[in-house]
Design a protein that fits this description.
Archaeosine Trna-guanine Transglycosylase, Chain: A, domain 4, Nol1_Nop2_Fmu_2, cytoplasm, RNA binding, binds S-adenosylmethionine, 21 strands, 5-stranded mixed sheet, alpha+beta, MeTrfase_RsmB-F_NOP2_dom, 461 residues, methyltransferase, 8-stranded mixed sheet
């Protein structure tokens, strides 16, 4: 793609920004795109053989700024592999991996990913949290939120609540609540022109202005939700300064309690990846603003924190039924800190962050797509384990497993939703895995394994 195909205003802005480097920058549009994937540590840490296999078969080479990130050979299709279905890795543009590295999430923290779909940064954060603490992954657009929720499930994330709310709706509920916030802002996408030529048609100076004003609205909500001492990573996939450095300066001017700790740009003519911008800001330990203090006081007056042991009996009895099921079929499963929550006949395990408790006010009326780990569907007089529970389990926790080689006919049959043959002594729920990585459930009896892969996830190729 030549300079001629790019909007003239964009070309002149980039020439002004990059001066003598701009020729190299425009030449990068004719270079092949870098393809990347990032290992999911929730799975990869105990999957030495599958990791060895993909290092070799996908000809992986390391992404310099992300310890779990790799470039893959453009001739391979990792999105079609059963290891992808099993959540061993997430396909992600390499430059985009820089943002969560700079946010530096820690296990046990309470973290918000404010503009999260389709889930690249959410899964990166969860990988670093190692199942400990609480992650809220939010996406304003309902359809994109659904895809985010599916990715959370596929990656086996057990400590994430997926919501679909506007940022101001969240900041009313969660003032001063988060140790870290990822704000991967909607932007004019200039860094994606090479990957997604459709973004070129959408670009105009007035669209950039609209993005800036939207970013400013969202960032104010993000700042209000940071705890004193908390960290905000603000990122975009665009080049212009109005959406990047100038927006960060505006934050610093408006919020003196925030300090800039780092700022990084990735350029397609300097690195193997698309354009990306990340800034990291830290709120001072005393840093609750007057507005947040008012919110916090109102919140504490509201009271309404559910007391321990205060769970309605329907939830208690659903949990008892689940535990009785797990004793038989998933005896190694351990529930992390949290509480049961029922949505109709669906039983979830709502994670509790360390030093965090949910109040009724925070949850009431909030659009929640996934209230933590989906444990089970309640049926008349029985329990059916949820697909998410399979994806978050380990084979050694299950009473029965059926392991299928990733290149076997059986694995394709399972992923198409077909019944499999199993040893005749098998009776009950079995965790179906590929090289030890869970793919879903099957229910065995009489030498047959009835397929319980959700219909929407079945793959017909
Ligand atoms: C750059 S994308 C996020 C990519 C995601 N973080 C990832 O790594 O997969 C920005 C997201 O912001 C969402 N968005 C658009 N308008 C928004 C708004 N006014 N408030 C919050 N999010 C918005 C978009 O739907 C989009 O999913």
């Amino acid at each position: 793609m030549g300079k001629e195909q790019l909007p003239a205003d964009f070309v002149s802005r980039m020439q002004e920004l990059l001066r003598e480097e701009s020729d190299d920058f425009f030449a990068s549009y004719d270079m092949p795109r870098a393809q990347g994937l990032r290992l999911n540590l929730l799975k990869a840490e105990r999957a030495a053989e599958p990791v060895r296999n993909i290092l070799r078969d996908f000809r992986l080479s390391p992404v310099p700024w992300c310890g779990t990130g790799y470039y893959y050979d453009e001739t391979v299709r990792p999105g079609k592999h059963p290891y992808h279905t099993a959540g061993l890795y997430y396909i992600q543009e390499p430059s985009a991996m820089s943002a969560v590295e700079m946010l530096d999430p820690q296990p046990g923290e309470t973290i918000l990913d404010l503009a999260a779909a389709p889930g690249g940064k959410t899964s990166h954060i969860a990988s670093k949290m190692a199942g400990r603490g609480l992650l809220i992954a939010n996406e304003i657009h309902p359809e994109r939120a659904r895809i985010l929720s599916e990715n959370v499930e596929r990656m086996g994330i057990s400590n994430a609540v997926v919501t679909s709310a506007a940022p101001d709706e969240l900041s009313r509920r969660f003032p001063g609540c988060f140790d870290r916030i990822m704000l991967d802002a909607p932007c004019s996408g200039e860094g994606m022109f090479r990957k997604d030529p459709g973004a070129i048609d959408e670009w105009s100076p007035s669209h950039v202005e609209l993005c800036v004003s939207r970013q400013w609205d969202i960032v104010q909500d993000a700042c209000a939700m940071l705890k004193p001492g908390g960290t905000l990573a603000y990122s975009t996939c665009t080049f212009n300064e109005d959406e990047n450095e100038k927006l960060v300066q505006r934050i610093l001017d408006r919020y003196p309690e925030l300090e800039l700790r780092g700022m990084k740009r990735l350029w397609p003519h300097r690195e193997r990846g698309e354009g990306h911008f990340v800034a990291v800001l830290v709120k001072s330990a005393e840093g609750a603003s007057a507005a947040e203090r008012v919110h916090a006081e109102a919140e504490s007056k509201r009271g309404g924190k559910p007391k321990r042991g205060d769970k309605p009996s329907a939830e208690r009895s659903a949990l008892e039924a689940f535990k009785a099921w797990a004793e038989q079929d998933l005896p190694g499963h351990v529930l992390p800190p949290g509480a049961p929550l029922l949505f109709g006949d669906e039983l979830y395990w709502l994670p509790a962050g360390e030093g965090w408790s949910w109040s009724e006010h925070q949850l009431r009326g909030l659009k929640i797509l996934r209230a933590g780990l989906h444990l089970a569907h309640l049926k008349k007089n029985r329990i059916e384990p949820a697909h998410a529970l399979a994806m978050a389990s380990k084979p050694e926790q299950a009473a029965r497993t059926v392991d299928l080689s990733p290149d076997s006919a059986e694995v394709s049959a399972y992923l198409r939703g077909e019944t499999l043959s199993v040893p005749s002594e098998y009776k009950g729920w079995a965790l179906v895995t590929t090289d030890g990585l869970p793919l879903g459930w099957g229910k065995s009896s009489g030498g047959q394994l009835k397929n319980h892969l959700p219909k929407g996830l079945r793959q017909f190729k």
